[in-house]
Amino acid sequence: MTSPLPGRPTTAALNDRLTVAIEAARLAAADTLRWFNNPTLVIDTKADASPVTQADRAAEAILRGHLLGAFPDDAFLGEETGATAGTSGYEWIVDPIDGTKSFIRGVPLYATLVGCRLAGQGVLGVIAIPALDELVYAARGTGAWHIRGSAPAVAARVSARATLAESLVCSSDFTSFARWSGGREAGNAARQQVESACGVVRTWGDGYGYLLVATGRADVMIDPLLNAWDAAAVETVVTEAGGRFTDWQGRPSIDSGDGVATNGLVHDALLKCLP
Q1: How far apart are CA 138 and CA 94, in angstroms?
Q2: CATH 3.40.190.80 residue spans of the chain
Q3: The domain made up of 164-271 is a member of CATH 3.40.50.2300
Q4: Which of 50, 123, 233, 271 could make a disulfide contact with 115, Cβ separation 3.0–4.6 Å?
Q5: What are phi and psi for residue 186, nearest 5 degrees?
Q6: Are 153 and 145 in contact (CB under 8 A)?
Q7: Whole-model pTM?
């Protein structure tokens, strides 16, 4: 399998996976549009009280089928269908609709996320925004690439803003700071510190917020509540775009339950706002 993707060539195994990941993300993202703003959409509630729809389940089935169809020895973790073990060392981590609450309300800022890790390290990521027809992808060592509609891919780069005072910060839901694992008081204090320190604050969240950081339109994306399937794709995309992704303690982890992505220049200053 060969790849026409721009950027420095990767190893064959990673290059092949990136090509298939982009194909899978496009297919799943396109399928979600069948239900977007569709009055027949059926909404269920999961055990954790979060919503799920037939669009979530159908898109994950496409991702699982396409990725494991091409690489049957890889492991797979999906938000809706859980984990499947593999033997290759590669693990796909996907979120078919990141921002289901936005999707349900007809807000076009939800994302389809496809990440892949090797031996616990992120090696590729794809962020697709179906309703806006935007996509950013990256593989380790090749940089990040941005596509709008049918236009050719162009390099994606984070911003050059050097202070929090001139930064635009995004978050999926600022009320969720009160549910941060370190406690309500500490979470709310962090929110106030971030809002006071940053020049512009917006709730353009979920995968879209991370895409904005990777393309230089936002400077910070912060989540007090974050699952591995929310973070796997965006970690690689942001870092390959020249930015930085860590948990709130500054560790390069997608498993801590919280996360923050920045252009790198304001990262340390942003971490000082956090408990």
Answers
A1: 15
A2: 164-271
A3: no
A4: 233
A5: -65, -40
A6: yes
A7: 0.95
